[in-house]
Write a structure and sequence with these properties.
Peroxisome membrane anchor protein Pex14p N-terminal domain-containing protein, Pex14_N, mainly alpha, single chain
Length: 84
């Protein structure tokens, strides 16, 4: 029976992650996100874990994008002298 509960909890948690990753949800106030997740029967612990995970992913995405912008803006193009 606990396997069924664990699977159900895992599915619920994964659904919460998908919800929190949605583009139109990312910038919503945390209190609104929490209220919605509680209405879906997630525990406080699951909600906190999901919020922390998604925020961590967003910070990493921001660092990756910043790094990519810096690298692409410093591209040096060298030209070989043309022989006439």
């Amino acid at each position: 029976m606990s396997s069924v509960n664990n699977d159900k909890d895992h599915d619920l948690y994964e659904s919460a992650l998908e919800f929190l990753r949605e583009e139109n949800i990312k910038n919503a106030p945390d209190l609104e996100k929490i209220k919605f997740l509680k209405s879906k029967n997630l525990t406080d612990q699951q909600i906190t874990k999901a919020l922390n995970q998604v925020k961590s992913e967003q910070r990493q995405d921001n660092r990756d994008r910043k790094s990519t912008r810096l690298n692409s803006s410093h591209t040096v193009v060298s030209r070989m002298p043309s022989s006439a």
